[in-house]
Amino acid sequence: MCSSKCIIVTVVVLVVIITVITLVATSLKKLDSNEIGIKYDTIRKKLIDSTEREGLHMGPPGFEFIIFPSVYTSLTFNHLEYKVRSDKLKDIILEFRDKDGYTKILRYEGESSIHESCSYFNTSQFQAERANFQEKVKEQIIVRYKNLNAEIVDLQVNNIARPTEYESAIRNKERAREDIRVANHERPRLLTEAETHKREAETHAKIIIDMADSHARVLANRAKTEAHAIIDQYEKETKAYKKIVEASGLGFTIDGFISYIGVRVIADAKNPVYIGLDSPANTVYP
Questions:
Q1: I need a labelling partner for 228 at 20 to 30 A (CA). Which of 31, 175, 192, 269 fits?
Q2: Taking Cα atoms as reference points, which of 101, 86, 96, 95 lies closest to residue 31?
Q3: Which helix (H) or strand (E) holds 213?
Q4: 155: how many CB neighbours lie within 10 A of its CB?
Q5: Which residues pair with 28 in a beta bridge?
Q6: Pair 72, 153: CB distance under 8 Å
Q7: CA gap 256, 250 in Å, rounded
Q8: Distance in angstroms (rounded) separating the CA atoms of residues 130 and 109
Q9: Any idea what DSSP says for residue 219?
Q10: Cβ contacts of residue 90 below 8 Å, gap of 6+?
């Protein structure tokens, strides 16, 4: 009987010890140095008002911490570091439930801030005024995140993606600018070459004109000389023929003169001439 009681007492003590250990184990939770949290009683479904920081904390059995980062955390749609306000942590949990839901809303608000900021700039200004654009985005996010009880310390805008048509236009513009630069660089050389070719053509044309003028003068002089020679020859022959037919000369009749001319033509021929003629007129001398 005593042995049975001892066993029962021992079992009860062990159960109590195990229960105490279990309750203590489920009542202790730890927060890291970069975390803050609010206790949530999973049995009573109740949030504790106070915000806890790093260390080992005791709470209702089976409680959980709803944890948020206590330091600035990067949120990447561009590069943004934000931190939740610890004094508003309970309100944030009641509205957004946990970190994932809160981060999702922050991302949406951040993207909306970027879209709104884009409306203040044209396409070329995104590249030329990147610092101003980044500052505008930061201003918009600060305003929106303030309503969400979050703070930001740094924002970096990277990898601005411009429309394909704009990129193509930029490349074409740069290519055209490079072509213009090359053309301007080559222009003096090309002008010099063109001027040289022009002078060469003018010189060659002048030489041709001078040669043509010289040849024309030679031909003109030759023609004049030949013309004078022919005229002189005919004048001499005219005088000679005049003496032949004049009464003071040989006194040829017309028929006799023609016969004389025919004889001379035949005599001057280089090849034999065969011709049938009437008897020449009798030569009459005075």
A1: 269
A2: 86
A3: helix 164-245
A4: 20
A5: 58
A6: yes
A7: 10
A8: 21
A9: H
A10: 38, 47, 49, 51
Residues 13 and 191: their CA atoms lie apart, in Å, by 111
- Copy the structure tokens of residue 168: 């193509």
State phi, psi for 63 to the nearest 5 degrees: -70, 165
Greatest extent of the chain over all pairs of C-alpha atoms, in Å: 212
Q: Which residue has the tokens 């600060």?
A: 142
What is the token pair recorded at 192? 């010099």
Calpha distance 116→203 (Å, rounded): 71
Look up the pTM and report it.
0.39
Q: What digits encode the pLDDT tens for the residues 214-270? A: 889 899 998 989 888 888 887 887 777 777 766 666 666 777 777 777 777 777 767
Sort 73 into a burial class: Cβ within 10 Å, 0-12 / 13-18 / 19+: middle
Helix (H) or strand (E) holding 67: strand 64-69
Task: Give the residue carrying structure tokens 């106070």.
Answer: 50
Please state at what angle helix 254-268 crosses helix 164-245, rounded to 10 degrees: 130
Residues 6 or more apart whose CB falls under 8 angstroms from that of 241 comprise 257
